């Protein structure tokens, strides 16, 4: 497959820039050229601050407002309930007036599966907002929403998002959901939680003065603890995150709610927790992942997917485990490479990499589920990277001191809780302090909007390259007597094929159907080589030729032998992931 | 009781007369389940619903609702195994018919739970219709061609069963068996045999893909939908592991009831006649695929027990459990001792007369045909009758041969002996499960209100408190001790709560604490799968 994506990228850029000239239509808001910063609405119907985080009530209000402002572009629905009974919402964004939304190639976007990784939700919401607010101003977006549909689930872990926001947590905790499990096998459930000892709403670190300690305070930054050099004497030991031993087993915070990982609860190469930490009883133990799976299976038009995480600045593709490398054929990898490499350019500081090779092994993850169980071209972006702090790569041995520097110079100390003394029931006199839960992994406010746009743009690029099928040419030839030959060429103008190689090999989704309606079909065939008349005849239902895949920027040819002049016939292209279109034979026939 | 009535009728048929298949319909089976539940030692509870919305019952044979170490028996996982369900109910009846005193002793510290039919949808369909398939009620695209149920079974010769279909050709892979002319076997080219038939399932090739009746009713085979080495994209395995409500219901039952110590599956594999083998390489891999060395020793012991009891049934065929199966998943992913047996098989000595050659070493097909002939099993191998087949115009096509359902499911009356023998074995297995006993606590006063508490715990059962693999599985309740002390007391050594690894059969563990301060303390030791004990100690 030859990927002409450079030309297409160029075309995309061109149409984007052309779009700027034109401004408003009836449904859109008035834009004044001098007020509109290019790419952003100056007067959005739904005003939003993209430099902050949102709780569930605020999120639902946003869905309502956006749907109300753009009823022809946005609909939101609940796809199921969380463990604690909260709705899991999906925004459907498309031009509802053009075509059947369920038949358009679809892009799935979700965020916040790890609840402490807040910004996936904001970036998902921004994407919906951006598409709706720019539909009238940017012709490229209008065209995109005519062809494609976005299913956007800003949070697929609502219980734990709320818990992270409103309850004491660290930047790493509440990665999980809210279903309590016995994590230490003692038969008791969630009996040793974090304790917000000083009641300030932050779970930060505990340190204790110690003659054998290996840490000291950084003379340049009192918030920071540094490891002393070999031979040097330290004066502190670190005692982990704020908490006490609630159940008397000599361990602190060892049975917090849900040390499970909702991103190990998916149905591809699932493994139990002794192989894959965070796994539960079986894939789909959680109602949240079940709800998403059911939605995915109910929407076979989903051809692309993005699942947002933090942290590290990565554009990840599968597989999660080395043994699954065999399911990524060269052809499929070429498609990923074409998209991912461009993504790397759109997202400075982000690297396009493979999960098991460059990150760590994951069994039972969502990305593998989407990509391998459903054959969907899927990326997962690890949002936020320390590159963003000073727009430079952190150097190897800096012990992440750029975070302290950034706090001092740009956050003016808002990112840390200063150390203070506390009397601990088990540890005695200690001090409590350290980074706040929304620092390090979640974006600082002013960086959030920039990254929201860059990531949204990448998913738009990804969605744009989901298959777009068109009937390129048809011709009708008389074979003498009452018999005619009908030929049709169907072309996919984008990078992503209608079926990945993996999909074709395992017959995941039904084949594309290219159908001749309104003619008496004697037989039909796929034309493999038109010049040398290499064909594969289809005996069963020849009027509907089954085509396993239409590759990126490639065409397929089909042929029917029909009885009677097929002037009144039409060709229907019906592809699960490539959309549905009808083509009148007469027009084209006349042209040919 | 319908069932007994049925058996009575069957018993009236003179000996040597041909045996009919005669499996009860699901309604009749439910009647049996209901009548067993009327016993005061039985509680019937639903563990969830099948894909088609039918309740899945569990029969809890127990002396009280108090959790005791439990043996869980599960049958009817693969829908083609009706015999397992019949035998599971037969076991329930035999156990409940034990002498009252014996039963009371058995249930005083153990419970036996039985899920007679996990794949309810399949039993319902298979007992009464032509559609003989392993799967549940979900509509699936069996041949993954994008069309659902487009090529269903067709009973071409209208004899009420789907059998085989042979097409005569100048050359083909199959020939008639020399001794059993109605049985088709593959011609052995290495012995210069030649075949002249192609063999298919009776039916039509509606979608012209070369396969006959390959996509009709029949959903996901629950016994291929479990998480251990789940076989993705294979026939009847579902969209992904544990995609089916039946699969999730049984795993949830096991995790939510930590007292379940051992699981016995009447299904289409067998690790009882031939025990699990230890494979050090497979056992040490990240994704372990061998029982641990210690656990295989227990497998060997239980297997010996089993083979002794089943002697009269003859040699069982080798049927290792594997990918996506319930039983392998129960051991590797839920951390329970997991045993599986078809509970009935074609006896190795089909013909009891001494002259007949023994079945040992024979191919499955020969064993089957010998058994059908010896026992005069009616309807299992049919004579061939000519038909006109639209897919083979002008060719010689015949319908007949083997009727698949007989392979694992003999006429119901043939299950009687195996049901009784398995009940005997299950009583022994239940007794073999771990049991904990304490030594009297030893308290030493070290002076100044400092006390040393020592106690020894013994496992008097023939099995460990749980398999070794369970020590690796987070959600299995472990061996633990909790020593509750008064506010005025203090631990000088030891902790309030401590977890321990599994305790072997006949093994013991010592516990000790140093406590400062007079007064009562309360000690709880054990684990749900072997029982927990609480004692008060005064310092």
From TrEMBL, chain A:
Residues 1-21 form the signal peptide. InterPro entries: Peptidase_M14. SUPFAM superfamilies: Zn-dependent exopeptidases. The active site is at 382 (proton donor/acceptor). Its cofactor is Zn(2+). Belongs to the peptidase M14 family. This is M14 family metallopeptidase.
């Amino acid at each position: 497959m030859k990927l002409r994506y450079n030309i297409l990228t160029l075309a995309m850029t061109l149409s984007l820039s052309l779009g700027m000239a034109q401004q408003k239509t009836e449904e859109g808001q008035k834009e004044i050229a001098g007020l509109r910063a290019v790419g952003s609405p100056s007067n959005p119907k739904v005003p939003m601050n993209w430099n902050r985080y949102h709780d569930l009530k605020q999120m639902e209000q946003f869905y309502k407002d956006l749907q109300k402002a753009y009823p022809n572009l946005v609909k939101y629905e609940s796809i199921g309930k969380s463990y604690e009974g909260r709705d899991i919402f999906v925004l459907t964004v498309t031009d509802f007036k053009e075509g059947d939304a369920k038949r358009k190639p679809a892009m799935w976007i979700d965020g916040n599966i790890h609840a402490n990784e807040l910004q996936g939700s904001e970036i998902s919401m921004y994407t919906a907002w951006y598409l709706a607010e720019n539909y009238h101003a940017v012709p490229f977006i209008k065209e995109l929403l005519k062809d494609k549909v976005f299913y956007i689930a800003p949070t697929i872990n609502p219980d734990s998002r709320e818990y992270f926001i409103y309850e004491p947590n660290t930047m790493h905790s509440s990665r999980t959901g809210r279903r309590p499990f016995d994590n230490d096998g003692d038969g008791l459930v969630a009996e040793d939680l974090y304790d917000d000892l000083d009641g300030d709403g932050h779970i930060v670190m505990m340190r204790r003065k110690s003659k054998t300690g290996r840490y000291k305070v950084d003379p340049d930054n009192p918030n920071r603890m540094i490891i002393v050099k070999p031979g040097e004497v330290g004066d502190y030991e670190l005692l982990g995150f704020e908490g006490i031993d609630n159940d008397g087993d000599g361990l602190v915070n060892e049975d917090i709610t849900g040390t499970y990982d909702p991103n190990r609860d998916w149905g591809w190469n699932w493994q139990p927790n002794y192989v894959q930490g965070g796994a539960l009883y079986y894939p789909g133990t959680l109602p949240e992942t079940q709800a998403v799976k059911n939605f995915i299976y109910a929407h076979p038009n989903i051809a692309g997917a993005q699942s947002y995480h933090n942290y590290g600045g990565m554009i990840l593709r599968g597989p999660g485990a080395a043994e699954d490398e065999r399911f990524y054929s060269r052809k499929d990898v070429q498609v990923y490479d074409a998209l991912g490499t461009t993504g790397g350019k759109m997202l400075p500081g982000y690297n396009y990499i493979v999960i098991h090779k460059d990150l760590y092994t994951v069994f039972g993850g969502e990305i593998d589920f989407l990509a391998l169980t459903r054959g969907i071209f899927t990326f997962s972006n690890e949002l936020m990277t320390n590159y963003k702090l000073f727009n430079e790569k952190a150097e190897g041995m800096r012990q992440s001191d750029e975070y302290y520097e950034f706090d001092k110079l740009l956050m003016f100390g808002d990112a840390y809780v200063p150390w203070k003394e506390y009397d601990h029931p088990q540890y005695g006199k200690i001090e409590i302090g350290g980074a706040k839960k929304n620092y390090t992994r979640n974006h600082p406010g002013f960086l959030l909007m920039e990254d929201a746009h860059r990531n949204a743009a990448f998913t738009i690029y990804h969605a744009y390259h989901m298959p777009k099928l068109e009937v390129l040419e048809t011709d009708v030839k008389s074979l003498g007597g009452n018999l005619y030959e009908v030929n049709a060429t169907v072309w996919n103008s984008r990078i992503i094929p209608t079926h990945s190689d993996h999909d074709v090999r395992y017959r995941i989704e039904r084949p594309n159907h290219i159908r001749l309606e309104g003619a008496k079909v004697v037989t039909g065939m796929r034309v493999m080589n038109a010049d040398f008349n290499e064909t594969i005849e289809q005996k069963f239902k020849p009027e509907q030729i089954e085509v396993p895949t239409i590759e990126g920027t490639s065409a397929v040819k089909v042929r029917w032998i029909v009885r009677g002049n097929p002037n009144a016939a039409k060709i229907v292209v019906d592809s699960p992931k490539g959309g549905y279109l009808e083509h009148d034979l007469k027009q084209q026939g006349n042209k040919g | 009781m319908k069932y007994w009535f049925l058996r009575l009728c069957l018993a009236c048929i003179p000996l040597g007369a041909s045996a009919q298949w005669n499996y009860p319909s699901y309604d009749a089976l439910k009647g049996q389940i209901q009548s067993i539940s009327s016993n005061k030692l039985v509680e019937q509870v639903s563990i969830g619903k099948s894909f088609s919305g039918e309740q899945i019952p569990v029969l809890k044979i127990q002396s009280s609702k108090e959790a005791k170490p439990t043996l869980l028996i599960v049958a009817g996982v693969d829908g083609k195994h009706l015999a397992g369900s019949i035998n599971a109910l037969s076991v329930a009846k035999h156990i409940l018919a034990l002498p009252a005193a014996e039963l009371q002793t058995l249930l005083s510290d153990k419970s036996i739970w039985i899920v007679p039919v996990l794949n309810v949808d399949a039993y319902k369909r298979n007992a009464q219709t032509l559609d003989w398939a392993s799967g549940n009620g979900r509509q699936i695209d069996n041949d993954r061609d994008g069309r659902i149920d487009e090529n269903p079974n067709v009973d071409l010769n209208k004899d009420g069963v789907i059998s085989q279909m042979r097409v005569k050709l100048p050359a083909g892979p199959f020939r008639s068996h020399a001794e059993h002319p109605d049985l088709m076997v593959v011609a052995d080219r290495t012995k210069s045999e030649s075949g002249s038939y192609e063999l298919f399932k009776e039916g039509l090739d509606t979608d012209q893909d070369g396969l006959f009746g390959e996509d009709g009713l029949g959903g996901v085979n629950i016994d291929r939908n479990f998480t251990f080495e789940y076989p993705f994209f294979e026939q009847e395995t579902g969209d992904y592991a544990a995609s089916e409500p039946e699969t999730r219901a049984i795993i949830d039952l096991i995790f939510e009831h930590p007292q379940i110590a051992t699981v016995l599956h009447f299904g289409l594999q067998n690790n009882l006649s031939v025990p699990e083998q230890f494979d050090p390489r497979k056992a040490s891999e990240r994704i372990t695929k061998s029982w641990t060395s210690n656990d295989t020793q227990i497998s060997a012991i239980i297997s010996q027990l089993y083979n002794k009891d089943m002697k009269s049934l003859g040699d069982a065929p080798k049927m290792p459990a594997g990918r996506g199966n319930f039983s392998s998943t129960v051991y590797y992913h839920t951390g329970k001792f997991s045993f599986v047996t078809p509970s009935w098989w074609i006896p190795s000595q089909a013909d009891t007369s001494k002259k007949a050659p023994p079945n040992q070493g024979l191919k499955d097909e020969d064993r089957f045909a010998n058994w059908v002939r010896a026992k005069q099993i009616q309807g299992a191998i049919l004579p061939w009758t000519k038909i006109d087949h639209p897919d083979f115009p002008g060719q010689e096509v015949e319908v007949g041969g083997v009727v698949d359902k007989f392979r694992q499911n003999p006429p119901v009356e043939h299950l009687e002996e195996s049901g009784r023998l398995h009940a005997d074995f299950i009583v022994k297995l239940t007794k073999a499960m771990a049991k904990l006993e304490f030594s009297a606590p030893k308290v030493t006063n070290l002076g100044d209100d400092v006390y040393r508490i020592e106690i020894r715990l013994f496992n008097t059962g023939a099995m460990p408190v749980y398999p070794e693999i369970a020590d690796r599985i987070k959600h299995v309740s472990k061996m633990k001790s909790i020593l509750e002390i008064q506010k005025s007391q203090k631990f000088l050594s030891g902790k309030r709560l401590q977890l321990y690894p599994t305790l072997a059969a006949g093994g013991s563990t010592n516990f000790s604490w140093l406590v400062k301060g007079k007064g009562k303390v309360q000690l709880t030791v054990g684990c749900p799968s072997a029982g927990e004990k609480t004692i008060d100690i005064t310092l």
